[in-house]
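Case study 2.
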Amino acid sequence: MWQLLLPTALLLLVSAGMRTGWLLLQAPRWVFKEEDPIHLRCHSWKNTALHKVTYLQNGKGRKYFHHNSDFYIPKATLKDSGSYFCRGLFGSKNVSSETVNITITQGLAVSTISSFFPPGYQVSFCLVMVLLFAVDTGLYFSVKTNIRSSTRDWKDHKFKWRKDPQDK
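Prediction:
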């Protein structure tokens, strides 16, 4: 049965490094070149309504919306580089997202797929997950077959009841 817990343990270890919260500041990437448009979205947990949303850059308010809206910079400049987060009212609770760093470069932007894993590790991770799923599925059907055969043996077994303990 311990083999069935391996995929769960792996998922717990991976997710332990990921941060969770009420708000998440989303962008298509974190590195842009000058004059690229930047589109930021303050995403609330379970898409719950968010009010009085402020987008902040380097700790200073950059844009305020009474109801949640996306923050759009039509042409990025080097001054748009910095640390961004969003803040708003989630019900009656004042919450903030984690800080993300946005970099504006002169020339070509470097596209990053993820800051959590480099691309090579993402492929390896997916292959390991597929392998673990296959092993877990095989173990499931193996255990299921063994349980069926053992219940069949139990049903075919004939018990003899004796009244006296001396009749062993």
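The helical segments are 2-16, 119-156.
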